[in-house]
Design goal:
Alpha-Beta Plaits, Four Helix Bundle (Hemerythrin (Met), subunit A), two-stranded antiparallel sheet
Length: about 325
């Protein structure tokens, strides 16, 4: 049976955007509003990082050529080394995709330090025709530190991208399993409740067959954005695969979890998705909820939620069922 609605179910209701006409891909929605990542933008930011490294290597080569030319007493150039063009990256549109990583500010600080050191060394060489060894050593240490910081940022960003579902911008199965294991360990330590909900888009095959697979993708991206924008700040939603999504609901027992998921179900059911040529499609979801049990483990909890989901589908779809691990 479905669990009756918790009397405080609406107390956790979050204010969200007007989703009646939203059906854009996650890449076209502000990340802060949609609550989803933008993998295409992140990938372009990674390509920009590669450009930074290539620009830095070119600048460093040209700077050394200029510096060695200044050692020649016959040289009468103005003594100003070329500026690194990649400093402009900091002011570009890609920074927003990486700005939460503290390495970005560290890289920018190293760029400024590198330029100051380069200017001082070039000025000293112009005056004395000698490279100051101590200052040059510090400069090269900054160059190495900069290269290391950028490579670390690249590695961190690739790891971030590896945990994002490319279609919806939600966390993927790998990210979901890691999060659930963390919550499982917390539940074992503190006995704090946590529930897992498995949501399945009803009759999704009919959307693909009627409107085409591109429309199906729009429906999935739109549903992902709606879910991510509608959950509590500390909840997380993941794409499990196909038309299935998983919600991780910390600090929620079975009754509260049911109320949260039921609210989401009602929101989806009352939502019209524009998919193609002015056509709209109504979506519904079925859901199964299970308490996360540290003794049973993550896989067993997912199996239990899946059992509840199939019960919801067998009983008419567009509803939420709860099943506990010890239920038979």
């Amino acid at each position: 049976m479905t669990v009756p609605k918790h009397p405080d179910a609406d107390s956790a209701e979050m204010t969200s955007a007007n989703w009646e006409t939203v059906a854009a891909p996650a890449d076209d929605l502000p990340a802060a509003l949609a609550g989803t990542e933008r993998p295409g933008h992140i990938l372009r930011a990674l390509h920009e990082l590669e450009h930074i490294m290539a620009s830095q290597a070119e600048w460093l080569k040209n700077w050394h050529v200029h510096l060695f030319a200044c050692l020649d007493p016959a040289d009468h150039s103005d003594g100003s080394p070329p500026s690194p063009e990649f400093v402009l990256w900091r002011q570009g549109p890609r920074e927003s995709e990486l700005k939460e990583n503290p390495a970005v500010q560290d890289i920018c600080d190293k760029l400024k330090t590198m330029q100051r050191q380069a200017d001082r060394i070039a000025g000293a060489v112009k005056r004395t025709r000698v490279i100051p060894p101590t200052e040059y050593g510090r400069f090269m240490n900054t160059v190495l530190d900069f290269n290391t910081a950028v490579r670390q940022l690249q590695n961190d960003t690739w790891n971030r991208l590896a945990n994002i579902d490319p279609l919806t911008g939600l966390g993927n199965r790998q990210a979901m399993l890691r999060k659930l294991r963390v919550e499982c360990e917390r539940q074992a330590r503190n006995r704090q409740p946590c529930c897992v909900a498995l949501l399945d888009l009803d009759f999704f095959k009919d959307v693909n067959d009627t409107y085409g697979h591109a429309a199906g993708d729009i429906a999935l991206r739109s549903l992902a954005s709606l879910l991510a924008a509608s959950i509590r700040p500390y909840d997380q939603v993941f794409r499990y695969g196909g038309e299935e999504f998983v919600l991780c609901l910390p600090n929620a027992d079975a009754r509260i979890a049911w109320a949260i998921v039921e609210r989401l179900r009602l929101k989806v059911a009352g939502w019209s998705v524009p998919v193609k040529d002015g056509q709209h499609v109504r979506l519904t979801v079925s859901a199964g909820v299970a308490p996360l049990d540290a003794e049973q483990g993550v896989d067993s909890t997912l199996d239990t939620a899946d059992t509840a989901l199939y019960a919801a589908k067998r009983n008419g779809r567009n509803c939420v069922y709860v099943r506990c691990a010890k239920s038979h």
